[in-house]
Amino acid sequence: MKSSTPAPTAGSDAQLDTLATLYSAVVADVLDALGYPNQSLPPHVRPLTPALRVAGRIFPARAQTVHQAPAEPYKLEIAAVEAMARGDVLLVDAGDDRSCGFWGELLTTACQFKGVRGVVMTACTRDVWKIKELNFPVFGIGFHPADSKGRADIVEIGQPITIGGVKAKRGDLLLGDEDGVVIIPSEVATETLRLAQEKVSGENIVRRELANGMPMGEAFRKYGIL
Fold first, then answer.
1. Residue 81: closest CA among 13, 136, 142, 150
2. 51 touches 140 (CB < 8 A)
3. Which domains does the chain have, with CATH numbers?
4. What's the CA gap between 226 and 184, in Å, rounded?
5. Closest-CA residue to 55 (of 81, 30, 78, 27)
6. Are the CB atoms for 176 and 53 separated by under 8 Å?
7. pTM, whole model, 2 decimals?
8. What is the pLDDT of residues 12-31, one digit of tens each?
């Protein structure tokens, strides 16, 4: 009787390990082919620290610009960090807030201890001099020295968000690198990772052929990869 290994479930350690071996462009190509053409964040969401790659399971949050300190400052920032698990990436829709350094060193330290894999946000960061030492991926839209208190505040955690025009929910996967950030819906995660691995293998073959002098047109006709 044949035995089979079940496919990794969405967001499992096995899937996250596979995700970390891929790159955003190949995943975006696969999602295009699967009928998900709007899964890449806008190009101004960039790596802000020397850790240029982030891969993990999405924990979503929504923040907004405010004009006075709330009654309980940082309440949901703290709740988000406490709710996240190893392998998560905090994904924050902040509406391109540029009023402050929304992220900082102490949040980074707490997340790193928990095994959180990074933060991606449409906001700015600060304390970069220290975050650089921690090798923690922070993707965002810039830098700002001012504190977030009274300027930007998380108003919702764990609920679906739309960030940079891309829908995301808890348990979706995220991959970011120097090309940008792509979000993989959990319902197609297994198929996306399988096809992305196949595409990487095919690209490796084509790369060798081109390096050995095969004409570009011939390589494309033979392998269908560009």
1. 136
2. no
3. 13-185 (3.50.30.40)
4. 22
5. 27
6. yes
7. 0.89
8. 889 999 999 999 999 999 99
